[in-house]
Structures
1.
Amino acid sequence: MRPLRRLALVSGLTLLGATQLAAQVPDSLWISTRGDVRPDRETYVLLSGVLGGLAGYRGIERRLLQLGHRVVIIDPYLMSIDSADVSFDAIARRVNTLLDVRGVRAARLVGHAHGGGVALRVASNWPARVSELFLLDVGAMEGNHSPVFSSSMRLATLVTRMPGGKRFVRGRIAAGIRENTGKSDWLDDTAVKAYTDVPLDNISGVVGMALRLGDSVEPESLAVVVSRVKVPVTMVLGALRCAASPGPQELAALEPLGARVRMVKIDGTCHFPHEEAPEMVISYLTHTR
């Protein structure tokens, strides 16, 4: 982005109140803890990507709770909406602090999309916190740069303030999700609202964070991060290719883990396997497949 255009966008976001959002986003929107701690059951920690939030994991959560497990869902991006540092490393530190306060240790850690980049750093930096790592349609990401927000999306703050603007942006987001799914029957009007209401209600902060994601810098190389991962890693990928699918470099970056990493693909799905084929994903998370 050209410097002058970038400056104009940032100035506009500031005038629209992007710096006030810390007090406007209650933690109930970015963390959910359900289920009892039981010695014979697992704790699952589910980290969302830039899009999806708590809503994206509710189906998986219901099934895990039925099986008697404890489930912690965290939207690490909404949690970091007012944070200056939004590198994977920084967001992982915040997630680790949350888990420490809740006494979470040896959890099965699940990350979708960019949430997988956060999950990888948690597993690398605090190995006692994680017993297994599951990456949903993502490999090992080098940095927290998101292609989700195009230049037009960065103007969404202004668009949503126009008549019909929210409906327009919601439609754009829904269309982008559909283009990255193999099975879109789950994406009904209720699901679209669940995925979009929170970001649309906090659009200035979301767009401001998108700008910071583009500038984020990781303190360590990906190779160093991967070298410290000692737990089993399972990549659960959509078998279909779409724009949001992980690239070959993301997958190859985990090869140094050798036998500790495995890759499985779910037929007919793409970037949202936990929504498109939840029972299949559950079978991998619970070791019944």
2.
Amino acid sequence: MKLILLGTSGYHPSDRRHTPCLVIPSCGVVLDAGTGMYRLGRYLQTDELDIFITHAHLDHVIGLSYLFSVMWEHPLSRVTVHGTPEKLYAIEKHLFYHDLSVRPSFDVKPLAEETPLADGGRLTHFPLDHPGGSLGFRLDWPGRSMAYITDTTAAADADYVDKIRGVNLLVHECFYPDSRADLAVKYGHSCITPAAKVARAAGVGRLILTHINPLLEADYPADLSTVQKIFPRVEMGEDLMEVEF
């Protein structure tokens, strides 16, 4: 199964990266709807689309207003946006306030404890510690699994570690270098070394780091060799990166 990273920045896009949006084209599943969403139409392989929103901060939802372009490139018979009731309400009230943005045609659906996915899969969710609240997602199919963790402070003893245990692929945010751990805690984001420790503690197969700070000229001052001593199968995510899991 293939995952494509349509956006790997956090906060705002840069010349190199757009904000969070991941797609599994074969089953029409999108995780977050950041500015990378405008690329979605060229990759979809289904006529139905399920978009799962971790939280309602603008860098994760503004791409919902791009659905007109997505459906121009790839007509869709159904689009459903899944999230917690309070985040869906915030999107409807604020992002699609009539003087601010035109609302594309899509349904909204509060997240159930478990959501069935195409090809025999299922998605489960769990809370993450972030200002205003956020969610982590785990997606399981027979013989394969992945987790998506964004907008939280990584720690090997965090509650969410048990929820992602043993997944083949972990996509985890990494907004700050280790030197800014103070900001990571203050704003509810992660540093590179704690993210690697999470992957090791959870026994995942592979770690892709995403939600990268757009203000950094390079990804991080140090190369990955340091964190590879903690967790060897770690890579920096890049826009349009394709990941088999």
